[in-house]
Amino acid sequence: MATLTDDFIKVVPHANEFARAEGAGSIAIGSESAAFASDGRAIAIGDKAVANGDHSIAIGWMATSVTSTHTGTPASDAVTIGFHAGAYAPSAVALGSGSQASTPFTVSVGGDASIYGAFRRRIVYVADGTDVSDVATVGQLRRAKAELEEQLSALREDYSKLAILLQETAR
């Protein structure tokens, strides 16, 4: 078993299975890790980590950025970080242990029942959205709800006044 070490880097393999990398600029570090890309630049770091798609990245034990078995679409530009996390579509991002991203251009911080059972994570300390494509925070939604309730209350008051005025006019 080979060990690579210097003052700043130390790699100790877990097993006798070798890392494999194919494609210009591809990097695989870890026992049974694999980085494959036809155009190149796939990165797999961690035991059994697999990055299979141009410019894809998989970091963590059993992390995978790979072609979807359902669609056959390569996971190019996909990023996976965490134990047994997976990104299975182009430009998908899976963050955290067990997270699964299977739709293109999505970010996942949770997973379905296939790994640990369905679970969700919260994203905290997020600034209020300001653009039409930004996510709204709970604080923004609560303020919008309060403003809407205030406007509805004013409309109810106006409606009541109008109803009384119509009744008086009808007499």
Automatic annotation (TrEMBL):
Transmembrane segments: none annotated. GO terms for cellular component: outer membrane. Gene3D superfamilies: Serralysin-like metalloprotease, C-terminal. SUPFAM superfamilies: Adhesin YadA, collagen-binding domain. Residues 138-165 form a coiled coil. It comes from the Bacteria. Residues 19-33, 41-61, 90-113 form the Trimeric autotransporter adhesin YadA-like head domain. Keywords: Coiled coil. This is Trimeric autotransporter adhesin YadA-like head domain-containing protein.
